[in-house]
């Protein structure tokens, strides 16, 4: 933010508001800096006739109407690559936390329950089968880390990747039937909304583990609660939610859930690199140079 303010005229406004007010504040702005969660509504973009570049601090694009951007010739950039390792790290941390009951054990000790008996057994990730829903950069890095635990990797994506390690299974339900744990790492948006359905959770089974580090909309939260209550799914660990930061109370109170507040990319290294990419994309746009990380097809 300091660099932005030193180099450019910066105006701050929230993601909502009356388009008329936005026009008065941002009508002559040519660049919009946002993040993946807030995105840019069509009303906001319509209130910015001078808009030529949207630069996203993050990799999520589901909150931006990319077709509208294409129709107006608005370039869009994101910050891929630099947050891949941090997101994959957290995915593995959530796998470990849920399978080894780490978060539950922390609550158990703090509540003074240890003197009444032992917590009970978890299970090891080693030599288990891991499914990854979405085999982009983040999914591939999760697979690389999981192989250190001698896990067998299975994945689902739009197309198979025969050049990469892992076994391709197109159908998410069949993928879930095959594995012990399923990590969601695909893109958000209408095409993946509710993709992890109750059928997927049933297929994972009463000993299965679901982890979501993608977008909250990909997992049907109502179906997740029903599956857990019916003991159709063993446990889940979620870093993202459908209506952040509002999390349904039933999720908060369920003992078989590990919950974190959308912190997958929240490391010093990742956030600094993300900020640098935002600045570099803006500088390239202003200088009429090629953008470092344009969103393909926009």
Number of strands: 10
**CATH homologous superfamily of the largest domain, by name?**
NAD(P)-binding Rossmann-like Domain
Q: Regarding CATH, which class of the largest domain?
A: Alpha Beta
| Shape summary | globular
Query: How does the major sheet shape up?
Result: 7 strands, parallel
Helix content: 25-40%
With strands numbered from the N-terminus, the spatial order across the biggest sheet is 6-5-4-7-8-9-10
Low-confidence blocks of residues: none
Would you give the CATH topology of the largest domain? Rossmann fold
What is the strand content?
5-15%
Number of domains: 2
Which structural class fits the helix and strand makeup? alpha/beta
Distance between the termini: 26 Å
The SSE string, one letter per element, is HHEHEHEHHEHEEHEHEHEHEH
Radius of gyration: 21 Å
- Architecture of the largest domain, according to CATH? 3-Layer(aba) Sandwich
Q: Write down the overall mean pLDDT.
A: 95
| Tally of alpha and pi helices | 12
């Amino acid at each position: 933010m300091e660099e932005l303010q030193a180099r450019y005229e910066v105006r701050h406004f929230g993601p909502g508001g009356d388009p008329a007010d936005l026009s008065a504040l941002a009508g002559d702005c040519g660049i919009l800096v946002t993040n993946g969660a807030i995105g840019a509504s069509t009303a906001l973009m319509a209130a910015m006739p001078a808009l030529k570049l949207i630069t996203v601090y993050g990799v999520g694009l589901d909150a931006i109407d990319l077709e509208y951007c294409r129709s107006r010739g608005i370039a869009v950039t994101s910050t891929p690559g630099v947050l891949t390792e941090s997101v994959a790290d957290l995915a593995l941390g959530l796998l470990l936390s849920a399978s080894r009951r780490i978060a539950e054990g922390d609550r158990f000790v703090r509540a003074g329950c240890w003197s009444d008996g032992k917590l009970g057994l978890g299970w090891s990730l080693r030599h288990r089968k891991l499914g990854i829903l979405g085999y982009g950069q983040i999914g591939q890095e999760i697979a690389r880390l999981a192989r250190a635990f001698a896990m067998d990797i299975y994945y689902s994506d739009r197309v198979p990747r025969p050049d990469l390690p892992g076994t391709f299974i197109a159908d998410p339900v069949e993928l879930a039937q095959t594995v012990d744990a399923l990590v969601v790492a695909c893109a958000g948006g209408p095409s993946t909304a509710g993709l992890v359905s109750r059928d997927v959770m049933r297929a994972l089974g009463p000993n299965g583990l679901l982890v979501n580090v993608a977008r909250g909309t990909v997992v049907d939260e109502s179906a997740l609660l029903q599956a857990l209550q019916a003991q159709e799914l063993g446990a889940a660990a979620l870093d993202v939610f459908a209506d952040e930061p509002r999390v349904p109370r039933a999720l908060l109170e369920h003992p078989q859930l590990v919950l974190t507040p959308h912190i997958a990319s929240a490391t010093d290294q990742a956030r600094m690199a993300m900020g640098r990419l935002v600045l570099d994309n803006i500088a390239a746009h202003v200088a009429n140079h090629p953008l470092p990380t344009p969103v393909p097809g926009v």
